[in-house]
Amino acid sequence: MQKIGLFFGSFNPIHIGHLIIANYMANYTDLSEVWLVVSPHNPLKRKDSLLNMYDRLEMVNLAIDNTDRIRASDIEFRLTQPSYTIDTLVHLKERYPTKDFVLIMGSDNLVTLKKWKNYEIILRDFFVYVYPRPGYDAGEWAEHPRITFTETPLMEISSTFIRNAIKDHKSVKYFLPDKVLDFIDKKGVYL
Ligand SMILES: Nc1ncnc2c1ncn2[C@@H]1O[C@H](COP(=O)(O)OP(=O)(O)OP(=O)(O)O)[C@@H](O)[C@H]1O
Ligand SMILES: O=C(O)c1ccc[n+]([C@@H]2O[C@H](COP(=O)([O-])O)[C@@H](O)[C@H]2O)c1
C-alpha cells in the first residue's frame, strides 16, 4: 500500500523550514509522498493575522512547483471548521481506501497532543512520524509503538518571524522560495 505522509499547517506563509521537512519525509523515509494539508483554521490558534486559505494554498503550490513526491491538499477547505486533524484523517481514509496515511508532526506538537480532539483514536488508528524541534524532546511519548522519531534537519524559522519581518520592511529573501516572495510582494500582504 502506498504510504502518504500528511503534513498539516496554516502555512501563513509556507517557508523553507516546512519545505525541508516535506522533502526529508518524502525522500529519506519510507513514505512515497508527502501532502501539505493547508488548514483553514488551526483549532489552537487565533485567526487574527491569518491570510485567506486560497492565498495560502496558492503559496504552497508556488513553493512546491510540481516537485516530485510533494503535493498540496485543500481537503480541509471542504470540511467543518476549525479543522480537527482526526476528522480529516478519517475523511481521507474513506476517500482513499488504498492509501496508508501517516501523520507528520514536530516534537513541539507532542506537548499539546493530549489536547487534540480524539488523540487516542489518532494514535490507535494512525502512525505518526515526528521530527525534532529545539527544546522539545520525546518526553512521555518516547516508547509509543505508533510514534517514530526521525532525524530531520532543523531550520529554526517560523511564519510569525516572516510576517513580522515583512511588516517591518525587512528582507525575507531565502527564507521562502522566490515565487512565494513575488506573490507576497505583488499582493502586498502581511504589511
Ligand atoms: N522551522 C520549522 N521547522 C520545523 N517545523 C516547523 C518549522 N516551522 C513550522 N513548523 C511546523 O510546521 C507545522 C505547520 O506550521 P505552521 O503553518 O503553523 O507554521 P509556523 O511557522 O509554526 O507558523 P506560525 O509562526 O504562524 O505559528 C507546525 O507543526 C509547525 O510546528
Ligand atoms: O485536531 C486537533 O485537535 C488539533 C489541535 C491543534 C492542531 N491541530 C493541527 O495541527 C497542525 C499543526 O499545528 P500547529 O499548532 O503546530 O500549527 C494544524 O494544521 C492544526 O490543524 C489539530
TrEMBL record:
Enzyme class: transferase
Keywords for the protein's UniProt record, in alphabetical order: ATP-binding, NAD, Nucleotide-binding, Nucleotidyltransferase, Pyridine nucleotide biosynthesis, Transferase
Pfam families recorded: CTP_transf_like
Family per record: Belongs to the NadD family.
Coiled coil region boundaries: none
Record-given protein name: Probable nicotinate-nucleotide adenylyltransferase
Species for this entry: Olivibacter oleidegradans
Described purpose of this protein according to its UniProt entry: Catalyzes the reversible adenylation of nicotinate mononucleotide (NaMN) to nicotinic acid adenine dinucleotide (NaAD).
CDD domains: NMNAT
Domain Cytidyltransferase-like, residue spans: 6-164
InterPro entries reported in the protein's UniProt record: Cyt_trans-like (IPR004821), NadD/NMNAT (IPR005248), Rossmann-like_a/b/a_fold (IPR014729)
